[in-house]
Amino acid sequence: MALLSHLFHDDRALESCLVNDSAHITVGASGDHVSKIHTALLILDGVSVAATELRTKQYGASTAAAVLAFKRRRGIINTSYQTTADDIVGKMTMAALDKEMLSREHASPLPVDPRRSPVSV
């Protein structure tokens, strides 16, 4: 399953997160995929992540808190094994982030990298 938003499209780590439990993104992760999550949380919820985490592209305590708040606002809970939201970016969270980013991009297009071809939906 591919991610459709311009922000997340073609990011292998995030697309893997969407389908593989072992690829969930948790505290301690780092990289461009985490930076994209930071961007989405800022755009969608206006949350701020610690400057150190932004600079190092790190999934730290403030990113975890922002993810948890995102999930609580939307009621993202896997009721097959949870009773409350957690701070992990898993399948349901990644799908929700992508869906909302795609909707936001269509409502107010973000600048597109001219080296990338547009995604058709």
Care to give the gist of this entry?
This protein is an all-alpha fold and 121 residues long. 49% of the residues lie in helices and 0% in strands.
Structure write-up:
The protein is mainly α. The radius of gyration is 14 Å and the shape is globular. The relative contact order is 0.19. It is built from 5 helices and no strands. It has a single domain, classed as Muramoyl-pentapeptide Carboxypeptidase, domain 1 (Orthogonal Bundle), CATH 1.10.101.10.
CATH topology: Muramoyl-pentapeptide Carboxypeptidase, domain 1
**Top-tier CATH class:** Mainly Alpha
Count of individual beta strands? 0
Q: Provide a count of the helices.
A: 5
The description of the largest β-sheet is:
none
Radius of gyration: 14 Å
Looking at the overall shape, the CATH architecture is Orthogonal Bundle
- Given helix and strand content, the structural type is mainly alpha
Compressed to H and E, one letter per element, the order equals: HHHHH
The structural domain count equals: 1
In terms of DSSP E residues, the strand content is: under 5%
Helical percentage: 40-55%
The overall pLDDT, averaged over residues, is 90
